[in-house]
Amino acid sequence: xxxxxxxxxxxxxxxxxxxxxxxxxxxxxxxxxxxxxxxxxxxxxxxxxxxxxxxxxxxxxxxxxxxxxxxxxxxxxxxxxxxxxxxxxxxxxxxxxxxxxxxxxxxxxxx
Amino acid sequence: xxxxxxxxxxxxxxxxxxxxxxxxxxxxxxxxxxxxxxxxxxxxxxxxxxxxxxxxxxxxxxxxxxxxxxxxxxxxxxxxxxxxxxxxxxxxxxxxxxxxxxxxxxxxxxxxx
Lengths: 111, 113
Description:
The structure holds 2 protein chains of 2 kinds.
Chain A: E1 4-7, E2 10-14, E3 19-25, E4 31-37, E5 44-49, E6 55-58, E7 61-65, E8 71-76, E9 85-92, E10 99-101, E11 105-110
Parallel strand pairs in A: 2-11
Antiparallel strand pairs in A: 1-3, 3-8, 4-5, 4-9, 6-7, 7-8, 9-10, 9-11
Chain B: E1 5-7, E2 10-13, E3 19-24, E4 31-38, E5 42-50, E6 53-57, E7 64-68, E8 74-78, E9 87-94, E10 103-104, E11 108-112
Parallel strand pairs in B: 2-11
Antiparallel strand pairs in B: 1-3, 3-8, 4-5, 4-9, 5-6, 7-8, 9-10, 9-11
């Protein structure tokens, strides 16, 4: 069945270091979304990518969607303690909200 | 605008019982999706409702069911509970359910003993 794999599972960084999480789908996606879940919280939408090769930036966060629309990445520059949480990618095959979530990357930032 | 509201926040049940969880979407949102979140399996799609109709369904047994009311509020029901059903159940709403961002509720933490 459809799977979205996400690596790494955990990442511990020193504040100020960069962080990247990667998602890979077994099939071509219609679109991919990224969510952040703080400890004890619920997933909060960050961004959606739709076009092949798309790159979007939100301050220190850079999101990419692969040319084949099968992979995506989230890069955080100069991490801060407020970046702590689990980052999930969620891919959709069709134009409706049935999303396949990656297993998440838990980011810990040491001050 | 009020966010997505899920009740109850916590629930403890025993094996064999059934449970009903409730979700009130953001006002104006007509699509409601349900996800199961566990440490081992992550977030898994259960089903999605739009205008009182189930449009999408995940790979869960028939013990998991849901419905949506005319005011877009949704309920999900799990019958004959098993230990493995212990999880955080998250509800998410969106305007039309077509390639849109999901607004998640705080979830219902279900423990099956």
